[in-house]
Amino acid sequence: MTKAMFVIVALVVGAVVSAAHSVADEGPISGAVKAIDASGKTLTLQTTAKGETREVTIVLKPESKIVKFARPPESAKTGFVEQPLALSDLKPGWIVSVTTKHEGGNEVAEIVTVVLEKP
Question: Is residue 18 in some structural domain?
């Protein structure tokens, strides 16, 4: 293999690894709501991946959406409708899925979706 070919292969491998890493940083995070800090605009989730449990703190910005899906109030309609929620509506123990982006060392919520409301 020539030196130029080796450099090209190394660059391609580096780009693939870098792309995989950025996708891992910016993906949905699912877990149980552990804590809600309305004044600090953060949500702490307890997540489990590969047999390990950890806590992830997610920052919410004004443009972050929190939603749940519910049956429409009219019995004639079928399916589910999106209902917006406030951070204060979330309860510890609820299961959520959060689409995030990585900003300045923080996980920042784009959309928080309630998956399961637990009493």
Answer: no
Summarize pLDDT for 8-46 with one digit per residue, the tens. 544 444 444 433 334 444 569 999 999 999 999 999 999
Let me know if residue 1 belongs to a domain. no
**Measured distance CA(111)–CA(65) in Å, rounded:** 5
Q: Locate the DSSP E strands across the chain.
A: 28-37, 42-49, 52-59, 65-70, 81-84, 95-103, 106-116
**CATH number for the domain including 78?**
2.40.50.320
| 48-62, 69-83, 99-113: the lowest-pLDDT one | 69-83
When divided into structural domains, the chain yields a total of 1
